[in-house]
Amino acid sequence: MRDVSHLPPQTADLNYVSDTNLSPEDQIDINLAFMYNQMVSGARKTELFMGCTYKAGKEGYCNGPGTIELAPHNALHTWIGSSLNPGREDMGKFYSAAKDPIFYAHHANIDRLWEVWREAHKQQLDIKDPDWLDSFFYFYDENLRLVRVKVGDVVDTIKLGYSYEQVHRPWLNMRPKPSYPPKLARQMLKTKEKNKLEMLSRTLVSSSELDTHGRALDASLTVKVRNHWRKKEKEEEKVIVVHGIEVKGDAYVKFDVYVNLIDQYKISPKFREFAGTFAHIPGGGAGKKKIDLKLGVSELLEDLEADQDESIWVTLLPTTPSCSNVTVGGVRMEYIK
Q: How far apart are CA 45 and CA 36, in angstroms?
């Protein structure tokens, strides 16, 4: 089952939360800027695009998804699923997603985007870890024979006998601009911080003020984060880490992340303040999973003229009601080589 209001010729929303009244042209502009963030400026390191590195053993487990896994991958699962079903089945939940044939085309497109990302970075960010390349799976082939396939055997589509059509990629040059002039924004942020001290606002805190057990994301939360400015080493990427995210396993959750946001009514991926998104598809279980969200922001901070500031303001903006059941452990900055 699919959402009938999203059938052709409706334009897909790659950062979907709920339906909007945007024209197709406006939606396409937002989609292009969003893809620039997810594929280019926010994915300049392997871990940012692919997610955290799994290793063998209990200590090797991690839960840190990459940029396009969260969106457009997760977001489009929800956009396609039927609004008549509580979990937007079929595509909106993992247990039912493969019942819809579009499941396979959707994941083929994610595979294609992997190839596009590799090409954009000239394969310099390919994973070379033998633990990953030599890991293997067992499958039955077309003759019902059990065969072992290594990950390293399938990373090159040419060896698998197929390649993707080369198409125009207008999002490669859709670098967003700030919603406000950076100097004006800095002045407004200082004023907001001063007012916060006077009003004791709950939604405007420093990273050190977050509770020991985290903070529920039942409303917009803006955190002052130390920028740890230093001279970057070559090829280093500055990264915002929203860590210790706890979310109920049966709830679709989505929140966006902005840097030095001035006006919460002027928000969109088409503005440079947008750093990324967190989108969690319900998996059918009720257990909670702790997740780390890492967002590359070196280029973003340069465009906001905040790359040398002592601190920045990171806003977590809930976009689904289920965010009231989400707890965030904290926000920090780090560097990735």
A: 14
